Amino acid sequence: MRKYGLILILFLLGGCLEKENPDVINGESMGTRYSVNVLGDKRVSQELIDNRLVEINDIFSTWQEDSELSKLNRASVGSWVSVSGELHKILKTSKELYRQTEGYFDPGIGRLIDLWGFGAKGGRTEVPQREEISNAFAQSSIQYLMIEPGRAKKTKDIHINLSAIAKGYAVDEIARLIKESGVTNFLVEIGGEVFASGTNNGDYWVVGVERPDNKAPIGLELVDASIATSGNYRNFFIWEGAKYIHIFNPTTGLPANNDLASVSVIHPQSAMSDAYATAMMAMGSSRAIELAKKMKLSVLLMAIKEDNVEIIKVNLP
Q: Which residue in 34, 141, 217, 230 has the fewest CB atoms around it within 10 Å?
């Protein structure tokens, strides 16, 4: 379920760390690395974290052939397939996000993701043939999935890829486990998706969002909230002078091609930050601003205007 984590830098504020250094847990899961920073006397079991991440990967991975999602993707069209409560929950949330974003968040485009080389089948260095794109596009939309409690059915031969929400969900789940362990002040990061709880030695947790022009990162404070960033300057390929990124416009079936270089979304839930950032990156700045205002989201946009980076903040100081 590899999804390239963008472009967040954790700023552990200078002098405060002299008071107390965090207990840091590092590991690997979901095709990327994770880090947990814990402050206070109580400690968190890495085994507990790793076991939960394995459970999540066993449900949502598109890389594991025996994952629950992979089995659903292989199922025959028109056949009901049993799904767990967790998979049903994320599929239901995804369909609601599809409606909210007018189709710009669409995890039913797995065939397009694979065709362009951004999925489990690996990299690609050239643009697919027009007929290939058309055929994949015809079998791509979460609207062709029916869900009921405990089961799901495809009405077309779609492939579902939940990478734009599952990693955020994993952050939420690890944060829940840490809170249940009695820890208040901590930070969880999985492949660039971040959730911050409490404070960092009395100060806000602060993350920095990298700029595509390599200027100083933009710092954003987090208070019991998550941040996810989606952008176009980490995972892409160049073909005949044109850049093709891993974020798709589900309404066209093509890699997104608009004025945005990155989108960062702050939200109480990492799964939602993850999904909204992906959808907005596909939209372009005008629609993204409209959605942020409509949903009352805190959003940082970096748009390319006449070869310059324009910083746009919505519901942020």
A: 217
Asked if 124 and 244 count as a contact pair (C-beta separation under 8 A), the reply is: no
The two beta strands, 225-231 and 242-245, are: unpaired
Residue with tokens 């379920």: 1
Which residues fall within 8 angstroms of residue 189, CB to CB, at 6 or more apart?
8, 10, 34, 35, 36, 171, 195
Rounded-to-integer distance, Cα 44 and Cα 106, Å = 35
Domains, the chain, ordered by start: 8-314 (3.10.520.10)
CA 48 – CA 29 distance, rounded (Å)? 13
Pairing of strands 254-255, 260-267: unpaired
* Cα 269 from Cα 285, distance rounded (Å): 23
CA distance 222 to 81: 40
Residues 6 or more apart in contact with residue 88 via CB below 8 angstroms: 147, 149, 150, 152
pLDDT digits (tens, 9 = 90+) for 24-75: 999 999 989 999 999 988 889 999 999 999 999 999 999 999 999 999 999 9
Dihedral pair phi/psi, residue 231, rounded to 5°: -155, 175
Strands (DSSP E) along 75-232, which ranges? 81-82, 145-148, 151-154, 185-190, 193-197, 205-209, 218-222, 225-231
14 secondary structure, DSSP code: T
> How would you write 36-48 as a 3-class SS string?
EEEECCCCCCHHH
Would the pTM count as exceeding 0.90? yes
Task: Give the residue among 118, 222, 241, 209 at the shortest CA–CA distance from 171.
Answer: 222
Q: pLDDT (tens digit, 9 = 90+) per residue, 268-292?
A: 999 999 999 999 999 999 999 999 9
